[in-house]
């Protein structure tokens, strides 16, 4: 009998529905990733015990780890499904089932799809943008040395996958911590010559409830980030500036 | 044309899960930073002082007694004690418990070094808290009052540690407290942006580890000294001065000042420090 | 007319976001619809860079040279006036992006750095590492978020465009959209709409495109009466990583930074790539095109790789793959390519700094699209289009790094033009066709949910992709194209017998997909029919039976109209008012 890949998927047909686990066995092909497994199930939505079921709902788009859509828990750990290769996951024990579950810190929409809009709200709260005068032609931007670009570019690689938030022990509904991604974006925009005009506002925003202070420096964010953003460094730098700003404000406002 | 306004996107309906940042609102930043700072100053500073002072036990009961006398000789010592030790400690402890119980540790899923340290900081904090409560109660506020009877300090601790369970608790607490403190310094530097880079954090990690180990060894050495090096220490190595006889118990600043004046010459005279007077 | 014109933009990639920004700036009310959160749009996949003739390298580059390269690269099929305007705007657009905070790479003096791309001899491509599209999209996304927080933009993320609402006179009065969570279908009134829904790679099954790039919106409009132009022009990128689920792009910037394409001279050479000495390597692009070398335009590089593999049988180990070699590049150059090197490393497992990459061409870009006039308006009044979704600018072959420039330029034209149009729009009579269109869409939905056939939509899609890839990509034969069309007709027939394994009314992704699938099938026919009728070879469209360009007959835009349920093709003259068409030869020295 040809080899199959065993998959166990935590499912939930809507936010209020009970959680069930369904098992699938998928014919093995080399070089599969988790998204191709899910595509295979969509083509043939039958569980391991022969029951016809609905295709798995999950978010995905680019399939090359740049759009940030397909974060989920794979064998319990948060990672991008597109870059999770079956051969690597099963290295050593191909009979071990792969488990899939939605991210645990975000409201489930359906199956593996979750609502991560809180990140985008946070980006709004810290004004993560450069407030340009307008899109008409105003000539060249100020010069910027490569060293600055070298520091900004890695931060600008954040794909908003929210894995840094998922793995953070402090990111939960009692702290309402803003999470590393947003803090890194604050550093990014504070470093931009024109973006820095909003620096003080951003720093004040981050001193609000759920701000930088909630970081417990477990450093999971930087370990788990699929794009290797220097998140702890950003948290350090931004917190220092928030403190300085708070002290300044205490004496001047 | 029917220009019915489109419905507002569902984003405004009550949101489940983690709520967005409350930009600029609330006071948690101040409290959290005070918590962090209080761990270094004054509590950390006091811890260092306490371990160094305790290390005088290595030199025997009399040396230790003299250290107790010296500390009690500090101006406004009772005010200092409350303002710089008890109140900050209580705040640090209670707010720390609050922080600890709001975290959701996940080392079972992500067994990374930093994550273990995150958990360890909470566990050691709770151990230290439990220990300190009993320690302060039993050593400071019950039994022989040491500010009035500094000479009894060594013996009081020795009696305490004669119970093997208590000894074990002291050893565990010593490790937990110095761990909590040294990692706390590291965290402080990282979180206040003093060591932003990976390399800086790594290097400072060695410094903190060295400091923690040194403090811990000093503390354990003190325990060793009390339990094994000077067995059967006398109940009181500094017999009560006449002043104390005239004014028993009352720990007025005047009394402690008098006492410190009387013991000052002793400190300078005692040449063979290691020889306990019995 | 409403006091403040109401504009709907469909699609949140570069083109959509740039038109949103222009409208918000001009004081219009704008609603942005996107299937995915806009920050996850397909524009993030663009890697290499964005063209603008700023001539910061002292090479004597100019806007006119950029213009000429683009028209020539597109084999003269593009209308020249919009291309001229776009290239003229290039430098200002780069400056604007720089002001928005895009972390473009820099020279030591702090100026923008530029790299060379395919189809040009100048270093004209500004870049942010090898993730330029991502960086540009984020910059625009941030600007839109800013306008959104100021209440000028309302986002409808997670809503899918189903169709335009047309009144009795065929004028667009809004859209019908479906909420992908609640599955609610409803209409939204608008005075003008802008379609910025990108390309249609999904029709080919596996491509370098994202999952959402189905061409569904364009197809829906085509079925409502919009012309679809130059559908047969599909860019197959020469260098992609073959994959199980998709083809992952390996940017042209790899060659721009000095990457070389080769195969062993001896097809039986079994040695490890790095141990094969220089003399035994066949750098076929460099030898055949000494002037442009590895940076010939994409259609040419793709065909050469195809020929090496299938005609010369020189693919590595007999497989359809050739080497793209970066191992000789110095560290600083590799550093500028970090983003794509990581992709290769993660998905293939080899380190491209140490081992030459194995690549093969993959479907990449849709040159064709909705027909638009020079104001980006389609033939349906009130429906505008911009970006990859329309057909302008790229002609028969797109030059690398022109897509990002065009998306932004196109959005910058479409936004204000739509606003102008909307300001002059007369009010609709009655309900403007909203009720009727909503009913039409609801009936389609009902048909799907009540259908109890046996066909799995994902399997139909697979068959469509296989057919399209086999017959309508790099090399096309009329017999094959006829076969493909017959196959699609068959699939359309089978579609009627579809079985939705999920009929629930909550976040039903397969339901949404099945709706898109129908549109993909219809658009697939447009591509195949256009290719079948164009008996010449031009740019990306290559027919061995007709190997030459035939300007007399085919220097014309293909326009497909949906007539009686099938594509009806007509032709329109191309604007060649600036540059006289000349033979396109890259092989001379």
The CATH homologous superfamily of the largest domain in chain C: FAD/NAD(P)-binding domain
Structural class of chain A: alpha+beta
Count the helices of chain A. How many?
A: 9
Largest sheet of chain A: 5 strands, mixed
Number of helices in the DSSP assignment of chain C: 16
From the N-terminal CA to the C-terminal CA of chain A, the straight-line distance is 75 Å
What do we call the CATH homologous superfamily of the largest domain in chain A?
Alpha-helical ferredoxin
Number of structurally distinct domains of chain A = 2
CATH topology of the largest domain in chain C: FAD/NAD(P)-binding domain
- How does CATH name the architecture of the largest domain in chain C? 3-Layer(bba) Sandwich
Largest sheet of chain C: 6 strands, antiparallel
Compute the average pLDDT of chain A.
Answer: 96
**Strand ordering within the main sheet of chain A:** 2-1-5-3-4
CATH class of the largest domain in chain A: Mainly Alpha
Descriptive account of the structure:
The complex is a heterotrimer of chains A (253), B (278) and C (589). In chain A, 33% of the residues lie in helices and 13% in strands. Chain A is α+β, with helices and mostly antiparallel strands and 253 residues long. Chain A folds into two domains: 4-114, Ubiquitin-like (UB roll) (Roll), CATH 3.10.20; 117-133 and 143-252, Orthogonal Bundle (Fumarate Reductase Iron-sulfur Protein, Chain B, domain 2), CATH 1.10.1060. Chain A has a five-stranded mixed beta sheet, with helices on one face. In chain A, strand 3 (71-74) and strand 4 (77-80) form a beta hairpin. The termini of chain A are far apart. Chain B is mainly alpha-helical and 278 residues long. Chain B has a single domain, classed as 3 helical TM bundles of succinate and fumarate reductases (Up-down Bundle). Helix content of chain B is 65%, strand content 0%. Chain B contains ten helices and no strands. Chain B has helices at 28-40, 43-54, 61-72, 77-102, 113-140, 153-161, 164-191, 198-229, 242-246, 253-269. In chain B, helix 2 packs parallel to helix 8. The radius of gyration of chain B is 25 Å and the shape is elongated. Chain C is of the alpha+beta class and 589 residues long. Chain C folds into two domains: 1-233 and 367-589, FAD/NAD(P)-binding domain, CATH 3.50.50; 238-363, Flavocytochrome C3, Chain A, domain 1 (Alpha-Beta Complex). Chain C has helices at 14-25, 63-73, 80-99, 132-149, 216-223, 253-256, 284-288, 298-310, 331-335, 338-348, 402-423, 434-450, 457-471, 478-495, 509-533, 551-554, and strands at 6-10, 29-34, 50-51, 114-116, 123-126, 153-157, 159-166, 172-179, 185-189, 192-195, 228-229, 234-241, 248-249, 260-264, 281-282, 322-325, 357-366, 369-370, 383-385, 556-563, 566-573. In chain C, a hairpin with a 2-residue loop joins strand 20 (556-563) and strand 21 (566-573). The model of chain C has no long low-confidence stretch (mean pLDDT 96). Chains in contact: A-B, A-C, B-C.
């Amino acid at each position: 009998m040809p080899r199959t890949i065993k998959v166990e998927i935590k499912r939930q047909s809507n936010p209020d529905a009970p959680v069930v686990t369904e098992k699938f066995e998928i014919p093995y092909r080399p070089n599969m990733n988790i998204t191709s497994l899910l595509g295979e199930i969509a083509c043939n939505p039958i569980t391991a015990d022969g029951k016809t079921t609905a295709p798995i709902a999950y978010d995905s788009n680019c399939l090359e780890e740049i759009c940030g859509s397909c974060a989920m828990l794979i064998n319990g750990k948060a990672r991008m499904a597109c870059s999770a290769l079956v051969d690597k996951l099963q290295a050593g024990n191909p009979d071990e089932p792969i488990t899939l579950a939605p991210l645990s810190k975000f409201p489930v929409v359906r199956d593996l799809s979750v609502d991560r809009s809180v990140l985008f709200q946070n980006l709004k709260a810290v004004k993560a943008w450069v407030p340009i005068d307008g899109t008409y032609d105003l000539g060249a931007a100020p010069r910027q040395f490569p060293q600055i670009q070298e520091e900004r570019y890695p931060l600008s690689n954040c794909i908003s996958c929210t894995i840094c938030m998922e793995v953070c022990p402090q990111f939960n509904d009692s702290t309402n911590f803003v999470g590393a991604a947003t803090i890194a974006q604050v550093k990014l925009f504070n470093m931009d010559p024109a973006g820095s005009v909003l620096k003080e506002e951003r720093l004040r925003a981050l001193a609000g409830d759920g701000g930088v202070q909630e970081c417990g420096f477990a450093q999971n964010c930087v370990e788990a980030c699929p794009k290797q953003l220097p998140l702890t460094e950003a948290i350090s730098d931004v917190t220092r500036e928030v403190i300085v700003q708070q002290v300044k404000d205490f004496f001047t406002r | 044309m029917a220009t019915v306004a489109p419905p507002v996107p569902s984003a405004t309906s009550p949101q489940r899960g983690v709520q967005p940042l409350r930009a600029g609102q609330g006071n948690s930043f101040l409290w959290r930073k005070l918590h962090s700072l209080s761990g270094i100053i004054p509590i950390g500073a006091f811890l260092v002082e306490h371990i160094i002072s305790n290390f005088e036990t290595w030199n025997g009961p009399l040396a230790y007694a003299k250290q107790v006398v010296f500390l009690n000789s500090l101006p406004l010592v009772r005010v200092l004690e409350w303002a710089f030790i008890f109140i900050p400690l209580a705040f640090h402890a209670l707010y720390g418990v609050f922080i600890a119980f709001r975290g959701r540790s996940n080392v079972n899923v992500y067994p990374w070094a930093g994550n273990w340290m995150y958990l360890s900081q909470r566990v050691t904090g709770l151990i230290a808290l439990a220990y300190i409560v009993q320690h302060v109660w039993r050593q400071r506020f019950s039994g022989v009052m040491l500010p009035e009877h500094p000479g009894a300090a060594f013996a009081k601790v020795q009696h305490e540690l004669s119970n093997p369970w208590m000894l074990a608790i002291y050893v565990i607490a010593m490790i937990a407290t110095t761990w909590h403190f040294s990692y706390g310094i590291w965290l402080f530097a990282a979180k206040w942006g003093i060591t932003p880079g990976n390399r800086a954090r790594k290097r400072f990690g060695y410094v903190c580890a060295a400091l923690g180990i040194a403090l811990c060894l000093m503390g354990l050495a003190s325990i060793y000294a009390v339990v094994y090096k000077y067995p059967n220490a006398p109940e009181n190595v500094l017999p009560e001065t006449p002043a104390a006889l005239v004014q028993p118990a009352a720990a007025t600043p005047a009394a402690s000042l008098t006492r410190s004046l009387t013991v000052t010459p002793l400190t300078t005279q005692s040449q063979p420090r290691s020889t306990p007077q019995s | 007319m409403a006091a403040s014109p109401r504009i709907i933009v469909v699609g949140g990639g570069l083109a959509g976001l740039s038109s949103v920004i222009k409208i918000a700036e001009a004081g219009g009310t704008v609603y942005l619809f996107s299937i995915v959160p806009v920050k996850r749009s397909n524009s993030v996949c663009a890697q290499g860079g964005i063209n603008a003739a700023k001539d910061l390298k002292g090479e004597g580059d100019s806007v006119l040279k950029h213009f000429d390269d683009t028209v020539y690269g597109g084999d003269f099929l593009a209308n020249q006036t919009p291309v001229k305007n776009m290239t003229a705007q290039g430098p200002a657009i780069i400056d604007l992006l720089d002001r928005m905070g895009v972390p473009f790479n820099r020279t030591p003096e702090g100026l923008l750095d530029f790299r060379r791309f395919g189809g040009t001899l100048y270093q004209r491509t500004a870049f942010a590492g090898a993730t330029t599209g991502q960086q540009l999209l984020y910059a625009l996304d941030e600007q839109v978020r800013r306008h959104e927080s100021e209440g000028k933009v309302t986002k409808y993320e997670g809503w899918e465009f189903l169709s335009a609402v047309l009144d009795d006179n065929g004028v667009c009065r809004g859209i019908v959209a479906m909420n992908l969570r609640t599955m609610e279908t409803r209409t939204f009134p608008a005075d003008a709409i802008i379609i910025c829904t990108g390309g249609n790679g999904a029709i080919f099954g596996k491509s370098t495109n994202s999952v959402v790039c189905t061409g569904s919106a364009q197809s829906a409009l085509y079925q409502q009466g919009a012309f679809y132009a130059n559908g047969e022009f599909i860019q197959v990128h020469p260098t992609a990583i073959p994959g199980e689920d998709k083809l992952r792009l390996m940017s042209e910037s790899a060659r721009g930074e000095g990457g070389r394409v080769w195969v062993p001279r001896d097809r039986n050479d079994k040695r490890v790539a790095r141990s094969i000495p220089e003399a035994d390597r066949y750098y076929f692009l460099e030898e055949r095109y000494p002037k442009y070398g590895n940076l010939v335009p994409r259609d040419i590089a793709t065909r050469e790789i195809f020929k090496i593999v299938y005609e010369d049988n020189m693919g590595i180990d007999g497989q359809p793959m050739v080497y793209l070699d970066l191992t000789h590049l110095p560290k600083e150059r590799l550093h500028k390519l970090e983003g794509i090197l990581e992709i290769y490393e993660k998905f293939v497992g080899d380190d491209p700094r140490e081992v030459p990459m194995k690549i093969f061409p993959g479907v990449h870009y849709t040159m064709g699209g909705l027909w638009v006039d020079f104001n980006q308006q389609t033939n349906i009044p009130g429906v505008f289009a911009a970006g990859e979704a329309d057909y302008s600018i790229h002609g028969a072959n797109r030059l690398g790094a022109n897509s990002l420039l065009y998306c932004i330029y196109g959005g910058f034209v479409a936004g204000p033009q739509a606003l102008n149009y909307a300001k002059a729009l007369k009010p609709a009579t009655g309900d403007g066709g909203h009720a009727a269109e909503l009913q039409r869409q609801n009936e389609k939905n009902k048909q799907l949910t009540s259908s109890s056939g046996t066909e799995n939509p994902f399997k139909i899609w697979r068959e469509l992709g296989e057919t399209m890839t086999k017959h309508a990509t790099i090399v096309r034969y009329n017999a094959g194209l006829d076969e493909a069309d017959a196959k699609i007709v068959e699939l359309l027939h089978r579609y009627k017998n579809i079985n939705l394994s999920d009929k629930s009314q909550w976040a039903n992704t397969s339901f949404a997909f099945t709706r898109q699938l129908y549109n993909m099938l219809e658009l697939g026919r447009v591509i195949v029919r256009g290719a079948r009728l164009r008996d010449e070879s031009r740019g990306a469209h290559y027919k061995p039976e007709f190997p030459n360009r035939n300007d007399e007959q085919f220097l014309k835009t293909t326009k497909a109209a949906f007539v009686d349920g099938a594509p009806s093709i007509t032709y329109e003259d191309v604007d060649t008012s600036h540059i006289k068409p000349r033979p396109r030869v890259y092989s001379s020295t």
